[in-house]
Write a structure and sequence with these properties.
This protein is α/β, with parallel strands linked by helices. A five-stranded mixed sheet has the order 5-4-3-6-7, sandwiched between helices. Strands 1-2 form a two-stranded antiparallel ribbon. Helix 10 packs antiparallel against helix 11. It folds into three domains: 138 residues, Alpha Horseshoe (Serine Threonine Protein Phosphatase 5, Tetratricopeptide repeat), CATH 1.25.40; 69 residues; 126 residues, Glutaredoxin, CATH 3.40.30.
């Protein structure tokens, strides 16, 4: 994609102490040596180490039934150990992480057992009523949002047209809840993730004003987070459509490439990598299109980790386009500047140098054909203004 009270009440503990709690009490017995670490802290560390070890669900290579049973068993043991920790050490060193992990574990157990997250809801209510600090309140409010997903029944599939079982459209109440969460808890560790969710939904609706507001929110409240940079770049991409698009770099053969120098020819810029099958298929489709439409200029932005890997993929795919490669993979300067999250991604610019759109899959074909239908610029028509997006250079 894309990155958990002093007063605790656990009904199961009233019925009897779990083994992990008994063990923790024994480990907390006082020591005589004055120079040794405080025994309570020593025991706390050992108990926390047990909890950390229980986070690993085990190798996924084993038969699924074995892995499932193992994951369920470890999640149940982790829940019991976390209850012990939070009961014995309500103000412990790992309290905040323990609360976050407890809520996550309760959700995991409900999911593994295919049942409503009732126990999670009960724990959320306890934390909402008596949060030890603001971080715990953030956690409780976040998981309360997650539980909303289970409050409404899934849509009924058509009897005549089968659909995937768990595909659901945007939930207006959930989106409203996310907006309220962001208003109340802009400092939460979940705020970047939830801002990303709203940004994706607004982009699907084509609501540029909402995109602008969400990107500004990210810059105000978590400017150092990678999501803030990503949203700013994606907004830049939305704003760039219909405006001059310029790409400058030095290709792998040492040639200086400048799309503004080839005005009069439409351009396709393909972001791809030889290690991705979908990107390879896109490259082949673009090459077929280029051969049928030689007026198009095609450039590649390649994410392979080495020039040798790029060269091998280019030979295999029989392409000779200029390639912008900086060896940084997903850290590529072009990828960062434009907020690219998946490959293949294709930028389509018309003969006047304006960005017609950015898309993936095979949707670039419609954009490219639409560009071909546009009238060519007159010879004496002034060149468009310089591009406003960050220039990429190799």
């Amino acid at each position: 994609m894309p990155p958990r009270t002093s007063r605790m009440s656990f009904a199961p503990l009233r019925r009897g102490l779990p083994a992990t709690l008994v063990l923790a009490v024994l480990l907390a017995a006082p020591a005589e040596a004055q120079t040794a670490p405080a025994p309570e802290r020593d025991a706390e560390g050992r108990l926390w180490a047990t909890i950390v070890a229980l986070r690993d669900p085990g190798p996924a290579t084993q038969p699924f039934a074995n892995w499932f049973d193992h994951a369920l068993s470890r999640a149940a043991a982790r829940r019991a150990a976390l209850r012990s920790y939070l009961t014995i050490y309500p103000g412990g060193r790992h309290r905040d992480e323990a609360i976050a992990l407890e809520l996550d574990t309760l959700f995991e157990l409900a999911t593994l057992q295919s049942r409503p997250p009732d126990e999670l809801r009960q724990r959320i209510a306890e934390l909402r009523q008596n949060p030890p600090n603001r971080a715990a309140l953030h956690e409780a409010a976040y998981w309360e949002l997650i539980c909303r997903r289970y409050d409404s029944p899934p849509p009924t599939a058509s009897a005549t047209q089968p659909t995937p079982a768990d595909i659901r459209g945007p939930d207006a109440d959930l989106l409203a809840g996310i907006r309220e969460y962001l208003r109340l808890y802009p400092d939460s560790r979940y705020s970047p993730r939830l801002t990303h969710v709203l940004f994706d939904e607004a982009q699907l609706r084509g609501d540029v004003d909402a995109l602008r507001g969400l990107a500004a929110y990210a810059q105000e409240h978590f400017p150092q987070h990678r999501i803030a940079d990503e949203l700013a770049a994606r907004l830049r991409r939305e704003d760039a459509v219909g405006r001059p698009f310029t790409l400058r770099f030095t290709d792998t053969d040492g040639r200086d490439i400048d799309t503004s120098a080839g005005r009069g020819r439409p351009v396709l810029v393909v972001v791809w990598a030889g290690f991705d099958d979908g990107a390879r298929r896109c490259v082949q489709a673009v090459e077929r299109f280029r051969r049928d439409n030689p007026q198009f200029r095609v450039l590649g932005v390649n994410l392979d980790e080495s020039r040798a890997a790029l060269a091998a993929a280019a030979r295999d795919l029989d392409i000779d386009w200029p390639q912008y490669h900086d060896g940084l993979g997903w850290g590529h300067a072009f990828v960062r500047a434009w907020g690219i999250l998946r490959i293949p991604t294709v930028f389509v610019a018309d003969a006047e140098g304006r960005l017609a759109g950015v898309t993936g899959g095979d949707r670039w074909v419609d954009l490219a054909r639409e560009v071909l239908r546009r009238p060519r610029p007159a010879a004496d028509e002034p060149a468009p203004a310089a591009a406003t997006q960050p220039a990429a250079s190799g």
